[in-house]
Amino acid sequence: MIRLHYFRVLVGLFCSLIIASFSPAQNNPPARPRARDLGVPFDGTPGPLNAITDVSGVTVGHTTLNFGEGKLQVGKGPVRTGVTAVLPRGKDSMSNPVFAGWWSLNGNGEMTGTTWVEESGLLEGPVMITNTHSVGVVRDAVIQWRVNHGQPDPTGYWWSLPVVAETWDGWLNDINGFHVKPEHALHAIDSAASGLVPEGNVGGGTGMVCNGFKGGIGTASRKLEFLCSATTARRTICALPEFPWEGKFPLMFLTLELPS
Q1: What's the alpha-carbon Rg for the chain, to the nearest Å?
Q2: Which residue among 23, 84, 131, 179 is least packed, with the fewest CB closer than 10 Å?
């Protein structure tokens, strides 16, 4: 299957009462060195974790399905897939939406819920990432999670248009075996946490290939300073990219900390 490379961005502008202070949930070093640790030069100054969770309130969770070896047997494996959940306000994301927008460059990747994001300018709930053939089951699971844990909207109705993005992992994964189940999406949401973000072969990035190399999930942040009403404002912009397919462009989610 040959897919057009695409670049899809969902930008959540997360309001926060904390402008210049950060309180990471954990300070343990990553299991593997990151590119900056190995001396790869990058512009800008990262936040304390150099991760999307440097924006206060953002949490990330993964469910990783990685098992089986040998020749493909549909329904059995090998399985290299999963689900990633990004919650802009943690567990309050369902009842406390954030400003959001989205755009697609040369894209044929599916992302549900974008019509409502475009119409309302808001993101209600998490952003989910999974493989192309598991978008439906993950979308339904998010609605189930909201019914089980959330509250109806101010009008009293239980309705939801979850944002679920897909990337093709069929080169490495038994994608037609439908191994992603509702409980995997629920686990990604329930396990979402602040602090260090697991990277690489995790969650929705488990089966990613990029330009002939192994792809996966990454994250980064940068501190910004600029003049605002004759004073110096400090903000943090963060990203969680997933590198799919054989093209040049990643799936990426950006967050920006704004003043209250």
Answers
A1: 18
A2: 23
Q: What is the domain range of residue 179?
A: 7-258
Residue 142's domain is classified under what CATH number? 3.60.70.12
**Average pLDDT score, the chain:** 81
User: Would you call the peptide bond into 78 cis, given omega within 30 degrees of 0 as the criterion?
Assistant: yes
Residue 81 lies in a domain: yes
Q: What is residue 254's predicted lDDT score, i.e. its pLDDT? A: 55
Closest residue by Cα to residue 126 from 22, 35, 3, 14 = 14
Is residue 87 in some structural domain?
A: yes
Q: Is there a domain that residue 2 lies in?
A: no
Asked whether the predicted pLDDT for residue 212 surpasses 70, the reply is: yes
Whether the per-residue pLDDT at 211 is higher than 90: the answer is no
pLDDT of 7 reads: 33
Determine if residue 121 is left, alpha or beta; phi over 0 gives left, psi from -120 to 50 gives alpha, anything else beta.
left
128 domain-assigned: yes
Q: Say which DSSP state 93 is in.
A: G
